Fold this sequence. Notes:
This protein is an all-alpha fold. 73% of the residues lie in helices and 0% in strands.
Amino acid sequence: MAEDKDFNDVLDDIFLCEETQHKESYDEGFKAGSDAGNPEGYHLGYHRGAEIGREFGFYRGIINHHINLSEDSSTQYSDKIINQLKKVVELITAFPETNSEEHDIFALLESIRAQYKKACALLKIPSNNPYGTGVSF
């Protein structure tokens, strides 16, 4: 036995049919697109993150070497150089490790690169990165 519907409910169903179909189609398409795009986005983010991590690791290795050299030997760097080295370490440490809408990772990345180059200039060593990431999105 068919359910008796109020005439106004039937008219509402007819009137809202296009909107209902539009929403269902959008939801279905969004889910299909998300399922198809997530693996590609994940791999892109993973590989770019690995490149940035390798670059930061290189910087930390150079910085830590010079900090240790200053502490363990007769090589004495000025306070300005030591402070610059520590500043680079602080910036790398503060770099976000998770996705966040709050951080502009491109600006942070460029800031770290600039501070590293400044530290290298003070140390009078080349600032080139042998990995040559040149990360751009």
